[in-house]
Each structure stands twice: as structure tokens, then as C-alpha cells.
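DM from R.C. (forwarded with permission)

"hey, sorry to bug you on a friday — could you get me a structure for this? deadline for the figure draft is monday and I only need the backbone to look sensible"
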Amino acid sequence: MSTRTKGPLNSPTRTTATTLVLATAGALLGGTAATASAATTCASPVFKRQFFANTTFKGTPKKTDCDSAISESWSGAPASGLPKDHFGVRWSMTRDFGSGGPFALAASGLDGIRVYVDGVRKVSLWKNTTKTVTRTVNVTVPKGKHTLRIDYANFTGAAKVKFTYTPRTSASVDKVRPLAPTGVSAVYQPDGEGTNTLVTWAANKEMDLAGYRLYRRLEGSGSWTQVASAAAGTRRAWDETPPTGQSYYYEVRAYDKAGNRSAGSEDQLVVSQDMTAPAAPVLTATAVEASNNLSWSAPVDAVSYRVFRKEASDTAYTKLADTTATGYTDTSAAYGHAYDYKVSALDAAKNARSSNVVRSTRTILPPQNVTATVPSYGAVFTWTEAAGGDTADYDVYRSTTTPVELSYDNLTDCRSRKKSTDAAGGTVRSCVDYDGDQGTTYHYVMIRQNTAGRWSTGSADMTVTRPGDEIAPPPVTNLTAEPLEYGFRLDWDDSTAADLKEYEVWEYFSCCTPDYLGTVPAGTSEFVVGPEAADGESHMYVVIPEDIYGNYPDFTGAYWDGAVSRVTATELDLRPATVPEDTAPCSLSAYTTLGDEGGMYIDCADSVATEAAGINVYRWDPATGTYAKVTDPPLAPTATHYTDTTVPHGTTVYYLLSVVAPDGSETFSNVDASVSLPSGA
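My reply, with the result:
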């Protein structure tokens, strides 16, 4: 069994541990664990790890995988095929150290540890020891790519090994400058209101990198000015380039934690633009039924225009369009709403100047003859089409106060929309608001949109009161759970709520979201949970009453920590008193049956079909405290399933298998349960 000291479940180390457990399990069942491929590759800076069944690292590794960090503690063999003592583990990795510099190599553990850099031994702790040994060595790593190799030998007893390599960042020790950044690019991005330059670069390889600094100088000048900085993990920076129309150079410099600075990167040239805006256009607006129509004058140096709009009551404008024309038709304006418009004129350099502000409003006839009814399920609205019947869509707004504000917060989802024709041939429309609280008075207003996309003002205010109430039934009382041989029987007192609709039954878990088990109608106060194996486990159940208006007792969160009824009960324990050792090369999976038979699936190693004499099925007999054989003669050694036609009903039974050898001896499998409901259930 391997005891690991690091790594989340999805780390390379954790994955290795999981693979090891599966391989070990396969060996115990008579299978052969697959060895790791010698072709395993690990992306730098992840180590390639090899396990050897010796301390001299001879022969083919028993396992090869990847390890993101070296920090191990094993109490036995760390991988299938290794002895618990006298095994070796080798880590190796080649990475780019950038400009290099001073590093500290720290190794510790029990027994032998050796550390190599480019094949040269730097640390040697090679002896059988019962106490942790530690060694830290300071080395200077040249720039570029280098190979680390760590050999570990376990001679006897517990196995522990840890290795780290970290840059030494003291200014008195580290005098090595980082490499100059490469891959530098500068993109100038004027937008008509400002001039910005985005500078990007490739990441430096230094492990002790602290960050980057961005510098700018005017073309023809030798003086650099720092304009931005970036953290070590960032490879981009912005600068607000002076809008002078002149040319500027940018370069990036790296610096490390010891304060060493690199040389400048390759210079990048950008040419700025001037920011002189054109003259302001003169804007006029005309409101028609289909749109608000805008037109404006054209300044001599303007090449395009940007149209903005806001509702009269708002403070911020929204861009509607970019155009080269001197007019714009706004068909998206809501009818009955006053809008303010302005237009910006842009020159070729994207400099902009805004026009004067104008206001315009458009209207259309709202829905006519609106009526409302309030059945138990919601509020139903019916209205007649306006003359000329051209409605494409409509919205319904709801509020507890009047007048109703036509705002997003008051917009309701009026569903089940229908269109019909009345006796006079007129178009009639209807929809249903299923939401809102029962017993509450609401005010409604409707607006409509015609096929040209025009929205009307609001209809007349309608006032309706929803029937019913928002009062939940009280929690059920005297909730009990009677353990059965196949589950539980839940029982409770009938609810006193006159408008009760049903009860919902859930199983509660302290760790997780509850499981829905079923619903019983009002007038029923009993529910059977099952089939459920009687193996002595405890369960908690919750019963929630709900009325015809959808009300139920309040609770908070997903775990019902509020005022609801719950009961905790422990299952009967019908498990066998004795369980033979699971040594057979077969396993069984019993399944729950709702009929008159018990069943199981049989899964055996391939060797059983050719080497065994047969397979017996045993069923635990609680009355005698023994396992009773239910197969006579034994099943064929190739059997994959079995049906027990003699299984008792309304109880939990436990089965096990035996593999019969040619000499008549038996080895036994795991034990598994099958549950059956009473006959006729």
C-alpha cells in the first residue's frame, strides 16, 4: 500500500497512485499488471519517473510515469512488481533555465539519494539509514537547457525522498542578468478618442523572473522613459501613446528577484496620429409612425458618422450605428418613449466631435377592449385587435401599484398565447399570466408591436385579484419509519389542511442534495421505501405536504434545514454473521427483483472456464446461521448468470459463489445482496 504525501486527485502523482492500486488488485485476482511503456514522455518541467526492482537501476523499469514534484513517502512497494525493500526510483527532466544563475539543490530522505546536473553528480547521500538525511548544495547553472537526474535507492524499511531546485535570489549572490525578451510586437490602436499601443512579447525562461518593464522613446532621441510594468506571468502591456503624429520606439526589459535587469528587446516602431476633431454636425429629427428620422450637416473633413441614442430619462447614450451617410432611420425606438439623439462626426484619423442633441417621440394605438379573468391557475387576458389588425407581438406588465411603469422589472411572461376570430370577424388574442401570488391584487398594462416593428403606448390599467392564498400547509406530524426486510414503511398523521393536494417523500443526506422518492395524494398517509437492502444502515426521510396552490412548508437551502418533518431510522441487519475469505477468481453482482425470482451476474477470470470443475451458488440462511447451497449440480464453469427461483419474497437475501476445483475443493467469492418485494407488491 502506497502512502502519498502530496498531490490533488487530478495531479500526475495522484493518477499514478490510482493506477498502482488497480494494478495491485489485478495481481491479487490472478491477472497480470501491465508495465509502463518505456516510450513514456513528460512535458518539461515535469519529471519522467522510472521504478526499478533493484538499487542499481539495471534492466527494464517496472513502471514509467510522470511526476510534477519529488516528495514521496512509501511504507511498502511503490508500484506493482517492486519489492518492498531494495528498489530504485529515477527521476529525470530537461528544461530551459533561461539565463541560468545560482540555484540551491535540496535533497532529503531515508537511504540513498543522488542528484546529477548534465550527468555530473552534485549531491550524494548513498547509505542505508533509519534517520532522515538532508543535503543542500549551491550550484551555478549556465544558460540554456540542462538535464536534472535524481536517483533514489530504498535499501530497507520505510522509503522517503524529497528534492527541490530553486533559484537563489539574494542580490549579493545572483549577479546574472535575465535574457532580453524576444518576440516583441507593438500594435498601435487609435479609436478616435485616444491613442493606445499594445506591446506583447514571449515569456522569459528564468525561474526567478520578477517581471517586465516597458520603455518608450521619441524617434531621434536617445532617452528612454518607462511607461508600464507587468508581472512575471504577464506578456502584454498598454501605453497611451502621445497623440502628436510623431514616431515612437518601444522596447521591453526583464528583471529578476535579485534586481538584475536584462538588455532591451528589439525596438518596435509605431507612428501616432493627430487628434484634431472635425467641426460639429448640425442635427435635426422628424418623428413618423414607422421611425424617428435623423439628418445632419456634413463637416468638410468628416469621413464617417456615429449615431447615439438614449431615453429622455436616462443619462447614458447607446451607439446605434456607424455610417457614411448624412441621415439615419431609427425603427427600433419604442412607441410613446421620448428619445434624445446626437451624432459624432469622425475624420480619417478617427477624431470625433458631437452634434447638438435633438428629441423625438413616436406612438401607435395600444391593445383595445382588454378583459381579465382569474381562474385558479392564473390571470387570463383577452383583447381585440386594433383596426387594420397588424399585431406582430405584445408585452404584458404587472405591478402591485398603479400606474404601472413599463419597465423591465414589471415585464411578466404571459404564456399560452392564442389567436381566434369573433362573430364579427375581428381578431381576438389571449394569454395567461401563471405567475404572481395567490390572494394578491395586481395592476396590468399591455403594449403591442405591429408588423413594421412599432410598439404602442400602454393600454388602460386592469386590476385583478388572484384567488387562493400563499399559506403553506403545516408540516406533517407523528412521522415514523418502520424498518422492513426490504426497506421502510413511512407513516404519518393525515394533514388538517383543507386545500391539501399531495405529499412529497424525499431521502435526506447531510452531505448532498436530497433524493426525490415519490408522491402520494391527499388522503394517503403511508409510503413504502424499497426495495432497499437490509444491511443495518441509517436513513433520514422527509415528508412535505403541498396544497392545490403550490404552497409547502418553508425551508432554506437545498438540504431542508427549515421547518419540515423528518425521521431517522436504521434498517434491519440481515447480513451474514460470517463471511468466507474472498479468494475465488470470480465475483458476483446480485440484482434487486420485483418478480418472483432472485438473480445475479457472474464474472470470472478466463482460467475458470478451463481449470474449474464448476460454480456453486450459496444463499445465507438466517435461521440456521449457515450458507445453503442452491445449485445442485454445480453451474458450468462458463456460467455468466444465475436465476434463483426459490428465493423467499419480501426480504433481503445474501449470496456468495464458490469455484469448485477438480479435486472438489472450493474457493469463495464476495457476498452480495438481492432484495425482493412481497408477492403481489
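R.C.: lifesaver. The two ends are 47 Å apart (CA to CA).
me: no worries. Residues 33 and 47 are 23 Å apart (CA to CA).
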